[in-house]
Amino acid sequence: AQKITQTQPGMFVQEKEAVTLDCTYDTSDQSYGLFWYKQPSSGEMIFLIYQGSYDEQNATEGRYSLNFQKARKSANLVISASQLGDSAMYFCAMREYNNNDMRFGAGTRLTVKP
Amino acid sequence: NAGVTQTPKFQVLKTGQSMTLQCAQDMNHEYMSWYRQDPGMGLRLIHYSVGAGITDQGEVPNGYNVSRSTTEDFPLRLLSAAPSQTSVYFCASSPYDSNQPQHFGDGTRLSIL
């Protein structure tokens, strides 16, 4: 069974600084996808970034990048130049290509300080 | 541009009552799923479907039933509500390709008294 671990229940970062949110996963499959979602206080789930297990380069989307270390089974989210609007819950998720169900970590609450 | 629509947004039930949470998507997605979100536990998969007529259990299926008679709709039924089912429920959909992100509805906040 797949498992996603986010070890940081809460994180603080100063505005304009970079922050890394940790995510490790456990799977026996070779083919899988890793996702990060943002959930602001309003409650909606917003997709941020995707990394496939066979992608050789780390994914980037604007200020978001994914630090993918396959051997260590980690997929950390890096947010550069933090903004006050980045304050939210962040969830890491994995979807195995053969299994097709997406599982989520417990989440990290990020607070950006002015 | 509706995307994934969940109804109702809020609901209060008494223990033992049954109800159906509705989910509809207009993107012709094959894959649909239901999650519950509880504090400190992230989103846990209840049931999912890879197409009309096909459903499967997720992580926490007990007490819930689903069916998928059309591509668009994926209702979640609570058979006999229990206080432990108090939660926020999210429906999501995506193309079948598992490299595609899921699109989420706005959620249903359900309280069981």
Structure summary:
The complex is a heterodimer of chains A (114) and B (113). Chain A has 114 residues and is mainly beta.
Number of strands of chain A: 12
Distance between the termini of chain B: 35 Å
Report the helical percentage of chain A.
under 10%
Mean pLDDT of chain A: 94
Would you kindly provide a written description of the structure presented here, covering whatever features stand out?
The complex is a heterodimer of chains A (114) and B (113). With 114 residues, chain A is an all-beta fold. Helices cover 0% and strands 54% of the residues of chain A. Chain A has no helices and twelve strands. In chain A, the strands form three sheets. In chain A, strands 2, 5, 6, 10, 11 and 12 form a six-stranded mixed sheet that branches. A four-stranded antiparallel sheet of chain A has the order 3-9-8-7, with no helix packed on it. The mean pLDDT of chain A is 94. Chain B is mostly beta strands. In chain B, 0% of the residues lie in helices and 50% in strands. Chain B is built from no helices and eleven strands. In chain B, the strands form two sheets. In chain B, strands 2, 4, 5, 6, 9, 10 and 11 form a seven-stranded mixed sheet that branches. Chain B has a four-stranded antiparallel sheet with strand order 1-3-8-7, with no helix packed on it. In chain B, a hairpin with a 5-residue loop joins β4 and β5 (43-51). Chain B is globular, with a radius of gyration of 13 Å.
What's the SSE blueprint?
The complex is a heterodimer of chains A (114) and B (113).
Chain A: E1 3-5, E2 10-14, E3 19-21, E4 24-26, E5 32-39, E6 46-52, E7 60-61, E8 64-69, E9 74-79, E10 88-96, E11 102-104, E12 108-113
Parallel strand pairs in A: 2-12
Antiparallel strand pairs in A: 1-4, 3-9, 5-6, 5-10, 7-8, 8-9, 10-11, 10-12
Chain B: E1 4-7, E2 10-13, E3 19-25, E4 31-37, E5 43-51, E6 54-57, E7 64-66, E8 76-78, E9 87-94, E10 103-104, E11 108-112
Parallel strand pairs in B: 2-11
Antiparallel strand pairs in B: 1-3, 3-8, 4-5, 4-9, 5-6, 7-8, 9-10, 9-11
